[in-house]
Amino acid sequence: MREQPVPDAALRDGGATEMARVWVAEHGLHCSLRIGVYDDTPIDEARAWGMMLADLLRHVGRGLSAYYQREAGEVVEAVLEAMRDELAAPTTPIEGGLADAPETTPGGPAPRSH
């Protein structure tokens, strides 16, 4: 299995929380998500995920821009277009569900598999 390295900031921060893992395996996308982190806060978790995904998209745009020597804004727009297309007409069904989570785990609720 080819895993990405943990970012230096996450290694330095004892309170860091991994929010998602994503793999391409067996000809499909597989992920594990940490859902419920904001249960005891006034933060709207759907909005927080939107902000995280937008930040992730900017990182993807910057990385693809540097790798393929394309304009970052152009790359972000291309990814957004692909996302809109996939949301409107999914190429594969979503399978799986929420895994049973222990009541407490270090660093917050347990990840939920999808």
How would you describe this protein?
- The protein has 114 residues and is an alpha+beta fold.
- It has one domain (16-113).
- It is built from three helices and three strands.
- The protein has helices at residues 8-12, 45-68, 72-88; strands at residues 20-25, 28-33, 112-113.
- It has a three-stranded antiparallel β-sheet, with no helix packed on it.
- A hairpin with a 2-residue loop joins strand 1 and strand 2.
- Helix 2 (45-68) packs across helix 3 (72-88).
- The radius of gyration is 16 Å and the shape is globular.
Question: Short description, anyone?
Answer:
The chain is an alpha+beta fold and 114 residues long. The chain has helices at residues 8-12, 45-68, 72-88; strands at residues 20-25, 28-33, 112-113.
Give the SSE layout:
Layout: H1 8-12, E1 20-25, E2 28-33, H2 45-68, H3 72-88, E3 112-113
Antiparallel strand pairs: 1-2, 2-3
Helix pairs in contact: 2-3
Percent of sequence in beta strands: 5-15%
Number of β-strand runs: 3
Which regions are unreliable across 5 or more consecutive residues at pLDDT < 50? 102-107
Rg is: 16 Å
Determine the fraction of residues in helical runs and give it as a percent range: 40-55%
Structural class: alpha+beta
Q: Largest beta sheet, briefly?
A: 3 strands, antiparallel
| Count of discrete alpha- or pi-helical segments spanning 4 or more residues | 3
